[in-house]
Amino acid sequence: MAAASIMSQAQNPFFEEFKGTPHGTTPFDRITVSDYEPAIDRGITLGLEEVDKIVANPESPTFENTVVALARSGKDLDRVLNVFYPLLSSLSDDAMMELSMKITPRLSDYSTKISLNEGLWKRVKAVHDSGDTLRLTPEDKTLLKRTYESFTRNGALLEGADRDTYAKLSSRLSELTTLFGQNVLKEVNTYEIWLKSDDLAGLPESSVEAAALAAKEKGRDGEYLFTLDQPVYVAFMKYSDRPDLREKMYRLYTGRNTKGEYNNLPVMKEIAETRLKLANLLGYKTYADYSLATTMAANPDNVYRLLNSLRDAYRPAQEAEFKELAEFASGLEGRPVKIMPWDYSYYANKLKNAKYSYDEEALRPYFELNNVIGGVFGLAEKLYGLKFVKNPDIPVYHPDVTAFDVMDRDGSFLGVIYTDFFPRSSKRPGAWMTEFKGHETTAEGVNSRPQVTIVMNFTKPTDSKPSLLTPYEVETFLHEFGHGLHGLLANTKYASLAGTNVLRDFVELPSQFNENYLTEKEFLDGFARHYQTGEPIPAELVDRIIATSQFGAAYACLRQLNFGLLDMAWHTITSPVDDAAAFETAAGKSVAMFDPVEGSMSSPTFSHIFAGGYAAGYYSYKWAEVLDADAFAHFKEHGIFDPATAASFRENILSKGGTEDPAVLYRRFRGHDATIDALLERDGIKNTPSIPSDINHKD
User: Fold this and answer.
1) What pLDDT digit, counting tens, does each position of 519-532 carry?
2) Among residues 145, 130, 142, 144, which one has the least CA distance to residue 68?
3) Catalytic site residue 625?
4) Quick one: which of 245, 272, 268 has its CA closest to 258?
5) Which of 236 and 6 is assigned the larger pLDDT?
6) pTM (2 decimals)?
7) What count of Cα atoms within 13 Å lies in the side-chain half-sphere of residue 400?
8) Catalytic residue among 209, 361, 473, 480
């Protein structure tokens, strides 16, 4: 048994730094599910030993022997978790999900043992209290500040029974958020909507072909299989001429996780209650007060001020949009039409096409995925001088995944980026960026480069066509690629401050900034070509993309505000929620655009706030939208590919990560705080005197 155990350990790829692969990338071809648990247990043991060594150091606490030593600890655990959690979202199965539930309490206990380690806390506090006498760089000061706050915000000031209570609540919260996310993924994979040929009126050829292929793979030729995967659902709601089927799809999609085996209603209520208890234990009135204390927004009042001001600005425009839409639909149908939530995308698409001869499906041939990859990667080449070289020698975790070496302008190696574009049953819906390895400068002074991945759920290729994207999908690609650049261009000392490790309401700036290029003719002309003829996208189609960029802007804004207000409502509770459906309706009442639909909810599938990192933080998309519009206006003033402006954006925003106050970094790039003027101009919204003039100021 001992010999077998030793052999097993020797074969576990996580038990040492990755070797034998280009750039020390993850050896996915050698990793099995059985490798994770022993590697995690080993990483926890080694991490706690490193902490004990810091505490037992007989020397007086210093920045280097305490704060830096702690920042550099836990590498063995990071190595395995930086693979496990990304794959839990993009290549999961029952075994991975079961393991996730199994290890969650252990990881919570590990974190608590560090944050409540009295000896470690005393050393960190001693360094912090002597901070004014230390000669620290801005990045060092930020690390010290964040380290100190991580202890105080995780119970270090608690005593006696309160410490035990904190540990139990933290462990339970980890279990609940994991369960919530798993329920969302498991339930969405249970939906199969089988249709016949006479049910397909209005659907584009790409949707029909994909549904036929999905049915064929299930052995049911002649039928059509639709799922609730995002690209399938979005296309169906936009194009199906059958209001009865649109309503059916809508009710299925918005009724997920509200009953049955994967019911998230009790889970999310307990998550909110547990967060409230934790916040109260730490001396905060609500979880939002606790969460926002370390953001640019600083407190709930500033969040509500932004959301409510945008509501007041956009509501008149939204009402005008809906009036026009209802009149158009009534004329189209020859009868009065009341726009229902399952009708909006359908009629809005037809109105958009009628006004601008704009049809996203007609644009797909000009956005073949490989051409789009060249265009999006080419954007980084124009702005920052980067080169992306496909590297087939880098192991990947699924055949759909491609790995690229990323080189800087001078030919030096910057990192690796993995692309994963298509839906599958093992991947959760949506799009995201993560890292298998973050950037850092090691203790030996080595510039250790990052390995990032961008994951999406685009329309898959069929037997007769390659993957052809809509402009919306191109925008999604640009968004996640912006996050990827934030990680790839990191140039910091500490891993915990590198790349996207910034304040939450700053993290979306690079991603949303990139989206601005979708409506720039100079950018589209560089890659948008018909996949069959090679002809460039006609100028009139580019003009239509640009002309329609403001179409539905008020609807889109209020929809986002609804999510932001719903998030804030869940995290400003001061007592448990009884009726979750009524609570959700009340939370979004001021921005509601439709009457409530019984059985339809957002909360049970709202993974961003109940299973991700956006609890009391969904507002940050709108916060960052103000920043990105203002930042892009700076580029427009000098030229959208202006080298000097791009160099400043790279240096002050993309490379700095979380090493300094983001408001300081933004002012260094822009010359002043962001104002809402550029966003209002971009969306065509005017007369907004009630909106605050900037968002960098903290009350």
Assistant:
1) 999 999 999 999 99
2) 144
3) no
4) 268
5) 236
6) 0.84
7) 20
8) 480
